[in-house]
Recover the amino acids of this structure.
């Protein structure tokens, strides 16, 4: 089943020295209709090795364009290539938009959104901001945007323009790690202490309906903790993680599991694209690897439990998911798992990618 589809690069724009905004024209636009906050997973072959990388869409739903922002990571293969070698007219391949980093829109609502972005974490937040401004005319948006210095702020001019057009609806607080600002509170790292001070002096947390957080993992955890301490419920806080410092796979857990549960083989059945395939697999093999080894073109990108591209639903049997940086508790309770991180623990398991919206 072909999951990747061709797109042409139609425009490239350097938002800062180390980040490029790529505008794309899909051959089949219907496949790339998106919801605010979603991401695209690209594949590209470097020296004979296929790499898959996800990039969030930064355009709003009503902007009439498909656009991603790619920040160069030191020594990073895909992001460096995108920033240095990519040209207008190049052909790329991507999976249709995925991700659940959004809340349903309601044109009647007068919600107050709070967003925290760190560095390139601004991309999905910008998509949400642009969409909300258009589709929820009474909504307000407060953005806390953390960067190292002024010259590393992605989309600085775009954000200024939005603010100038919607003075009474947008509040943007730039927090810079290195550059001193007029207000001391706006200098340094966004940690739990700074969050608490922001909530005391600058953001009325009791007026917030939903908070979006996208940035480095330690910053996200600190912000989420402070939001909870200030009364926000779990379902009011939405996360998007780009990478995790924690290892995605813990081999000891799997071998320990295999030792005490004989037999170590599982009868598996996978459903994808309306078809199902059955095979035998080891309990020390992830569901994703088992599917791929049996010629099922299961979707995946990071293989580290971060992106959720490999999400599927367990419809029979049980698995152990050894890392999860992407699914919310409610999704796990409904039987959704990350197949790259899930290992069978019962003698029969049925997992379904179609039931997870693929
Ligand atoms: C759902 C999702 C959405 C994403 N959206 C965006 C986006 O909109 N814009 C964007 O620029 N990136 C985004 N990313 C991150 C992106 O997918 C890549 O991880 C990143 O560009 C690095 O890939 P690379 O091939 O250049 O580096 P690699 O060759 O994979 O890694 C090189 C080195 O950098 C480290 N590294 C990997 N990723 C990061 C990171 N994000 N930050 C710091 N160090 C890292 C690695 O540990 C390694 O040491 C997103 C990731 C996910 C999962
Ligand atoms: S492939 Fe990214 S979470 Fe499994």
């Amino acid at each position: 089943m072909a999951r990747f589809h061709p797109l042409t690069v139609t425009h490239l724009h350097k938002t800062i020295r180390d980040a490029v905004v790529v505008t794309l024209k899909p051959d089949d636009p219907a496949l790339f209709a998106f919801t605010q906050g979603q991401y695209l997973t690209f594949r590209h072959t470097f020296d004979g090795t296929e790499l898959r990388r996800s990039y969030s869409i930064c355009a709003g739903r009503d902007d009439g364009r498909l656009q991603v922002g790619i920040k160069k990571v030191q020594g990073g293969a895909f992001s460096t290539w995108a920033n240095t070698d990519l040209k207008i007219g190049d052909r790329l391949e991507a999976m249709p938009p995925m991700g659940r980093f959004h809340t349903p829109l309601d044109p009647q609502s007068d919600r107050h959104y709070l967003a925290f972005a760190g560095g390139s974490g601004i991309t999905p937040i910008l998509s949400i901001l642009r969409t909300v401004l258009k589709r929820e005319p009474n909504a307000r948006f407060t953005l806390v945007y953390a960067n190292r210095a002024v010259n590393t702020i992605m989309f600085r001019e775009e954000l200024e323009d939005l603010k100038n057009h919607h003075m009474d609806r947008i509040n943007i607080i730039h927090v810079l790690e290195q550059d001193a600002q007029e207000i001391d509170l706006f200098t340094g790292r966004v940690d739990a202490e700074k969050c608490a001070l922001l909530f005391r002096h600058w953001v009325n947390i009791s007026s917030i309906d939903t908070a979006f957080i996208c940035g480095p993992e330690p910053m996200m955890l600190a912000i989420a903790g402070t939001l909870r301490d200030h009364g926000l419920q779990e379902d009011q806080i939405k996360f998007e993680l780009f990478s995790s410092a924690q290892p995605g796979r813990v081999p000891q857990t799997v071998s320990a599991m295999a030792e005490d549960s004989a037999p170590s083989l599982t009868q598996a059945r996978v459903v994808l694209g309306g078809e199902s395939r059955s095979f035998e697999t080891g309990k020390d093999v992830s569901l994703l690897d088992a599917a791929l080894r049996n010629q099922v073109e299961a979707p995946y990108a990071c293989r580290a439990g971060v992106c959720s591209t490999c999400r599927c639903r367990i419809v029979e049997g049980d698995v152990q998911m050894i890392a999860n940086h992407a699914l919310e508790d409610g999704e796990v309770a409904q039987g959704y798992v990350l197949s790259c991180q899930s290992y069978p623990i019962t003698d029969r398991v049925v997992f379904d990618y179609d039931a997870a919206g693929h």
About this structure: Residues 300-303, 305-310, 326, 338, 340 surround FE2/S2 (inorganic) cluster (ligand 2) (CB under 6 Å). Confidence is low (pLDDT under 50) at residues 247-258.
